[in-house]
Amino acid sequence: MPIEILMPALSPTMEEGKLAKWNVKEGDKIKSGMVIAEIETDKATMEVEAVDEGTVGRILVAEGSEGVKVNTAIAVLILEGESASALAGAGSGGPAKPPAAKPAPAASQTAPPAMAAAAQQAPARAAAPPPVAHVETDKAGARMFISPLARRLATDNAIDITRVAGSGPHGRVVKRDIESAMKSGTAKAGAAKASAPGTAVATSGAAPLAAAASPIAAMADDKILALYEAGSYDLLPHDGMRRVIAQRLTQSKQTVPHFYLSLDCRLDELLRARERINAASPKDGPRAYKLSVNDFIIKALALALQRVPAANATWTEQGMLRHRHSDVGVAVAIEGGLFTPVIRNAELKTLAEVSNEMKDLADRARKRRLAPHEYQGGTTSISNLGMFGITAFDAVINPPHATILAVGAGLKRPVVAGDRVEVATVMTCTLSCDHRVVDGALGAELLNAFKNLIEDPVRMLV
Question: Which residues have C-beta within 8 Å of that of residue 354, sequence separation ≥ 6?
Fold first, then answer.
């Protein structure tokens, strides 16, 4: 029976992507682990490996197709011993072309010609072809990979495939897994009822979050374009990254009740400590490092979350996620958008380890070479615009985080110390808080714990 190759979900939040390139063509034989295609997500291009072995019988989605939904069939694989006749009913031969865009409603008389041209040039999305063969899915709806022999064996012996853990490549269920389930008797069909859709299951990992609300359109495109003279502007289509940033931040401001807390931190002791530590660093080799002020900020926020654990949390409808470790995301600007790579377990790492890891992540972020797990998740984040001379700002929370720290420039200012005025290097920090998780007093406690570590950096070394 032919097997559908589906558009993979390359990250937990991915809903659609662009099929950028096929590395195989119809008639090619493929093996498990072979790179068969490249998928472009909102922030990176990822390689897709084959799970099953066989011959590419039909390519259903042409390369270059945008907006291909996750779990849409993109190709059909003919298994060993099967002929091309098994593809009967799978659609016409050759790559499927993206469907033409739906005709746009007639533009108003005041709308400029550019709007109609933009509608004609908008990329069409690939249509989901009719199914070729039944594909097993687990209780979460994700595709399960299973060999034909294992599937037949499971059917003959009334084994519930969704309750069998695969031991083959990429979690594929193979013959030995079904035989093991037959001996144990724990995966008999009907032995246990599947959870109802939407039922929450308590785990120590991340709980599913509610679907994002649709962004509210402030003004229709044709009305915006009608305000400007035709030929007075260039219409630049949004790329995937910009669209996702817009959707997520709109969701954040619509669904997360923000409030903001600000205070000033003196940097004089930190700057002196940084100078001494960098002077003692090896000049080269694997143990070399060069600390930045941002490295101290990452470490200080990670330790502050450990000292105020109630703030190291995430809101879900099922309950509050209280995180055990401080996974700190750091915003890195790139052309056309930004990444927020995450320093995992930052509270356990030395300043040198934080510094070197951050340099590596930032360098690969600018080259768009980060894997999804390196910029997704996290328990909080930092946005530092001090290098641009910005003194203070309010940052938008990046869901599912409950906080984000906005860091301004360290500038020399007059400060009052006792009964005298002296000059000090001062940095303004603003903590944005999700009021569902962090109340005012709790946010103030977290921000003061951070301030104490920044102003007395020796505490970060013990």
Answer: 295, 298, 299, 343, 346
Can you say whether residue 116 is alpha, beta or left, with left for phi > 0 and alpha for psi between -120 and 50 degrees?
alpha
Task: Using the Cα atoms of residue 234, residue 238, residue 241 and residue 245 in order, give the sign of their dihedral.
Answer: positive
Based on its alpha-carbon atoms, the radius of gyration of the chain, rounded to whole angstroms, reads 27
Q: Could you check whether 3-103+126-131 and 257-461 share the same CATH topology?
A: no
Look at domain 3-103+126-131 and name its CATH class: mainly beta
- Domain spans, the chain: 3-103+126-131, 257-461
Phi-psi region of 247 (alpha: psi -120 to 50; beta: other; left: phi over 0): alpha
Which one of 170, 323, 373, 435 is the catalytic residue? 435
The backbone torsions φ and ψ at residue 315, rounded to the nearest 5 degrees and listed phi first, read: -85, 130
Q: Enter the CATH code of domain 257-461.
A: 3.30.559.10
Residue 435 known to be catalytic: yes
At 220-257, the pLDDT tens digits run 888 888 899 989 999 988 887 888 889 889 999 999 99
pLDDT digits over 169-223, tens only?
667 787 788 888 888 776 665 543 333 333 333 333 333 333 333 444 456 888 8
Q: Which of 169, 453, 84, 133 is nearest to 304 (CA)?
A: 453
Q: By the 8 A CB rule, do 160 and 186 touch?
A: no
Q: How far apart are CA 430 and CA 408, in angstroms?
A: 8
What pTM value is reported for the model? 0.61
